[in-house]
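pasting DUF1330 domain-containing protein for the record, 99 residues
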Amino acid sequence: MTALWIAHVTVTDADAYAKYAQGAGPAIAAHGGVFLARGGRYQQMEGNDRARNVVARFPSFDAAVACYNSSEYQAALAYAKGASERDLVIVEETPPPAE
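structre below
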């Protein structure tokens, strides 16, 4: 089953966060990840509002976890740690219903 990264982010240092994004994109793509949503229009309905929302789909749960733990992604993440407040969850997708 495919899996989703779902991130909710408040950027506190745009320059440093841009360096994160520059490294994170290639790391995600290298693990088969594709962006479904990336900082677009949104409306907060419940919970904590964070202005940047990102969803990426990976070919499997294991691929999503491997991406996060990869040296390439961790190098990019070092830029985000002091430049943002983030929540990130990896969720395995539900299979489509049988017809």
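Residues 4 and 57 are 5 Å apart (CA to CA).
The beta strands are 3-11, 34-38, 52-58, 84-92.
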